[in-house]
Design goal:
The chain has 436 residues and is α+β, with helices and mostly antiparallel strands. It has helices at 44-51, 63-70, 96-107, 113-130, 134-146, 160-165, 168-178, 194-205, 255-266, 284-291, 323-340, 344-361, 365-378, 382-385, 387-392, 396-406, and strands at 2-6, 12-17, 23-30, 74-79, 84-91, 184-190, 228-234, 240-247, 295-301, 309-317, 412-419.
């Protein structure tokens, strides 16, 4: 059972006792991610995340890692579209160290100018490394075309020009705007006494004052009214297809039928924060594209987001075939699932496989803490705790309805990555009139 408390300063605390191993996982979530960034400061949430590992007066640079490692634990962080989150996984009798680290860096990160410049180099290098991936290059173009208004159009790493131009003052303003108790969620899962832990968290975080009013930067994305297409040329000798369809946010009723639809199309969702991905060999798109030797791989899925996002499908084109062939085969499968929905056997299998992934995610304290925190961010923590019930309630009719509603040509953005084999030629894979 998860216990939820809100401190007087607005900080939300979720605690769940799990006593099967002497371990505990502590997460500190902030309601800010790349979806909150303005033009000219893209990538700032991720950069500030890096800076919070550079030390405070209480925990100088390197001290956090040293102390956590000495206890046999680990610490890390993640920045996404809707959040920035930090966590420590430790023996349960040492979890107070995680509490102290997070309470201190909520308020006292130094953001030393020399460290800012050092991390600028690191993050620019990270951006350059991502640009070596055709998947990244194609996805960046597709998202920018799919979202005209909402900041979901930009990748978490940020634009190169912004990474080169942002200053220490920009980072400091972002830190002070968003890193406050009333914009934070603390999640503790593991071999702990809930009341004792709550008292300690109140002692450490309770005195921290509320932050300034949170900047309102998000703008709703208008409905897409017509197919959009992009072609991204680049290095390599492999072509890639990506198709993004607009779908509702994770809190919407249609999200769970969409999960079942995706499991039937591309395989069960991956729910664990690491590992645990299931096979997709029996899925419709694997059979239609990979077994038919049109593609070497196929993938699909969406993110759990606060605002409406996209359902992404992608395939790697097999040598000897074209992007047009793969796209036509994919469209045929989608037309089929929208027309006739799925079979009873597919429904049972999709739900069963998704439940198995959920069970895997619930095995470890760190995974549970991740999902409880993410759920609280976007829909309330009961979204995770009622996951199985809502998944089980999905019907064949639900799947057919969401397929017809969202898998429309007018609701999609199609991206082709075309190998630039001849320097300035679109290549044989693109020599086809795109269908609309």
């Amino acid at each position: 059972m998860t216990e939820r408390t809100v401190l007087d300063n607005g900080m939300t605390i979720l605690i769940k006792e799990m006593h099967h191993a002497p371990l505990a996982s502590f997460w500190m979530w902030y309601r800010v991610g790349s979806g909150d960034e303005r033009s000219g400061a893209t990538g700032i949430s991720h950069w500030v995340e890096h800076m919070l590992f550079q030390g405070t007066p209480q925990f100088p640079k390197g001290e956090m890692d040293r102390l956590v490692s000495r206890c046999g634990g680990m610490l890390n962080a993640v920045t996404s579209l809707d959040f920035t989150a930090y966590y420590e996984a430790l023996p349960s009798n040492e979890i107070d160290l995680g509490f102290r680290i997070e309470a201190d860096r909520m308020l006292n990160a130094s953001l030393d100018p020399q460290d800012v410049e050092s991390e600028r180099t690191v993050i620019i290098s990270e951006r350059q490394g991502a640009e070596n991936s055709p998947h990244f290059l194609l996805d960046e173009e597709v998202k920018a075309a799919a979202f005209r208004i909402h900041a979901y159009r930009q990748d978490t790493i940020g634009a190169m020009c912004d990474l080169q131009a942002m200053t220490r003052d920009d980072l400091w303003a972002h830190y002070r705007a968003y890193y406050a108790p009333d914009n934070a969620i603390a999640v503790l899962v593991g071999d702990v006494d809930a009341q004792h832990a709550l008292d300690r968290l109140g002692e450490l975080f309770g005195p921290i004052p509320l932050g300034p009013p949170i900047p309102l930067t998000r703008r709703p994305e208008p409905e897409q009214r017509g197919e959009r297409r992009i072609v991204r040329q680049g290095e390599g000798d492999v072509a890639y297809l990506q198709v993004d369809y607009h779908i509702p946010e994770a809190a919407a009723p249609d999200f769970f039928p969409l999960l079942v639809m995706d499991a039937a199309l591309t395989g069960p969702p991956r729910m664990a924060s690491s590992g645990g991905a299931g096979t997709n060999r029996s899925s419709r798109l694997y059979k239609a594209l990979v077994e038919a030797e049109l593609a070497t791989s196929v993938h699909g899925g969406s993110l759990v987001t606060r605002d409406p996002y996209v359902y992404e499908l992608g395939a790697t084109v097999r040598a000897g075939h074209t992007l047009g062939e793969v796209e036509d085969a994919l469209s045929e499968v989608l037309d089929g699932i929208a027309g006739d929905s799925i079979t009873e056997a597919e429904l049972i299998k999709a739900i069963k496989q998704s439940k198995a992934q959920f069970a895997y995610a619930a095995e470890r304290a760190t995974n549970q803490a991740y999902w409880l925190g993410l759920a609280e961010m976007i829909a309330g923590y009961t979204w995770f705790e009622t996951f199985i019930d809502r998944l089980s309630a999905v019907t064949i009719e639900d799947v057919g309805r969401v397929a017809r509603t969202y898998l429309r040509a007018s609701n999609r953005t199609v991206g082709w990555y075309v190998p630039d084999v001849n320097g300035d030629s679109p290549g044989a894979a693109a020599r086809r009139e795109p269908h609309g």
